[in-house]
Fold this protein.
Amino acid sequence: MQLTATQVFHHRWSAALAAQDAAALRGLYRDDAVQLSVGTGRTLVGAEAIAAGYAEVFGVVGGITTTGVESFTDLGTAYVAESRQTSGFAQALAYDVFALHDGRARYHVSGSITPRTATALPAESATPGQVFYRRMWEAKRTRNAAAIAGMLTPDAVQATVRGVLRGGPAIVQGEQRAWQYNADRRLRGLSAFVEGPNVLAAEGVVNVTLLETPFDMEFYEVWLLRDDGPAALNVSGLINPRPEELKQRLQRIGAQQAQAVQTVAYGIARTIGPWRW
């Protein structure tokens, strides 16, 4: 079986983590790379700083071994992996989103699906990431397709547990399909928000009530912006319930409800309400 470029990169990254090889990890990141850790709220800029961060982690927990990959979505020059990892400190189900350039990481966002850790939210401000996030979810709340289109590049890519959409127009059409189901959407709040140059990550809980069936869903999402402007990539996933758990829940309700709830629930990153800390 021939591996894709992203699969090869992920194998090299995982092997370096297990070997506690900070030098090898340094070589996997571009000099201008940006790394966000949603679990710690830390932003590192530059390959040297990122390698030093790995060395610090190894000094505390030792090597980090990937024991299994639950899902891997290959987007060509980017990917998202949900992996089971073991260290001398703990076992975890983690998510990692990488955007590559010339075979090395330009952006890397990591977070934990389990266990969950509390992080401090930043104060609401006018930083580029926060401004973009507020504008995007306000446009979704008001069902403003033109505003959403204006915040996406023509070649934008969106990846959710339901699938991959390529191109700004296709992403907007996906939003409009979700709007056909008049669901009550309420963001209970964000549990994490981290940003760096041209990248942001958030975790939170959204409540969706559709056909008198309420759902609370904890999610993660990552946005890559182009020069602090429109978004070129959006990746989202389910923390709780997990995709298979959600599928089982949907199977316990009527066929009509299942179809409608699935449309909204599987697109949680497209249905969040207004900005709330």
Observations:
- The domain at 5-114 is CATH 3.10.450.50 (Nuclear Transport Factor 2; Chain: A,).
